[in-house]
């Protein structure tokens, strides 16, 4: 039986310990390393052979104490590690972003044990796994994302960081009024009235 090695990239130690307990009850999955940052993950995989890395799945939280989980996942993927996003943030926009980053899967920290195990095994085989109850929302947001212009998508990313229009305008070098117009068009495409409603998708 091929053993799947899991790296838990999460700045909450109890999450990693919980995964260790879950996988200890299986015959084919084990947590081989805990790390809290991209740099710690890089140091660990630096001593591993390409063959060992192909048998490894990194379960990565979206938001790390020092940086983005997406940046950490991008780094690991470039080095041959299959990645699975594992986060308490389960909005459809994060699932879509996961696919855009060529990450193999997404499960929330509310997922049941059997779904977590299915996700890890699927990703370890090179397949893609999205938590089942998140798929409809992902498909809906994906269909809207396709309709956004490049500038609207740029604004949406900044809105998702909870930045006010004044800061967005300064970042993009455009007027506040222009930002307001873009935001209004984004609201229309998502069929929402305000940022709070939009936040359900981001």
Helices, strands, pairings?
Blueprint: E1 4-9, H1 13-24, E2 29-35, H2 38-45, H3 50-54, E3 56-60, E4 63-64, E5 67-68, H4 69-78, E6 82-87, H5 92-100, E7 105-108, H6 113-124, E8 129-130, H7 135-147, H8 150-159, H9 165-172, H10 176-190, H11 195-198
What does this structure look like?
Helix content is 52%, strand content 17%. With 202 residues, it is of the alpha/beta class. Strand 7 (105-108), helix 6 (113-124) and strand 8 form a beta-alpha-beta unit. The strands form 2 sheets. It has a 6-stranded parallel beta sheet, with helices on both faces. A two-stranded antiparallel ribbon has the order 4-5.
Number of helices: 11
Helical content band: 40-55%
State the assembly state of the protein chains: single chain
Strand percentage = 15-25%
Radius of gyration: 18 Å
Taken in chain order, the helices and strands follow as EHEHHEEEHEHEHEHHHHH
Strand order of the largest sheet: 2-1-3-6-7-8
Write down the overall geometry: elongated
User: Could you describe the largest sheet, including whether it forms a barrel?
Assistant: 6 strands, parallel
Content-based structural category = alpha/beta
Q: Terminal Cα separation, in Å? A: 40 Å
The total strand number stands at 8
Low-pLDDT ranges = none
Overall mean confidence score, pLDDT:
93
């Amino acid at each position: 039986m091929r053993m799947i090695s899991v790296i838990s990239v999460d700045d909450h130690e109890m999450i990693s310990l919980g995964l260790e307990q879950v996988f200890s009850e299986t015959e084919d999955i084990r947590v081989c390393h805990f790390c809290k940052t991209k740099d710690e993950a890089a140091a660990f995989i630096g001593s591993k052979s390409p063959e060992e890395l192909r048998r490894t799945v990194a379960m990565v939280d979206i938001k790390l104490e020092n940086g983005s989980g997406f940046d950490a996942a991008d780094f690991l993927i470039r080095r041959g590690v299959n990645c699975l996003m594992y986060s308490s943030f389960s909005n459809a926009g994060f699932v879509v972003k996961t696919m855009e980053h060529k990450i193999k899967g997404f499960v929330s920290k509310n997922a049941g044990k059997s779904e977590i195990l299915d996700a890890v095994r699927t990703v370890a085989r090179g397949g893609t796994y999205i938590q089942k109850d998140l798929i409809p929302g992902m498909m809906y947001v994906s269909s809207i994302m396709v309709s956004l212009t490049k500038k609207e998508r740029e604004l949406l990313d900044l809105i998702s960081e909870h930045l006010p229009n004044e800061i967005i305008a300064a970042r993009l070098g455009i007027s506040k009024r222009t930002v307001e117009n873009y935001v209004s068009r984004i609201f229309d495409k998502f069929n929402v009235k305000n940022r709070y409603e939009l936040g359900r998708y981001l």
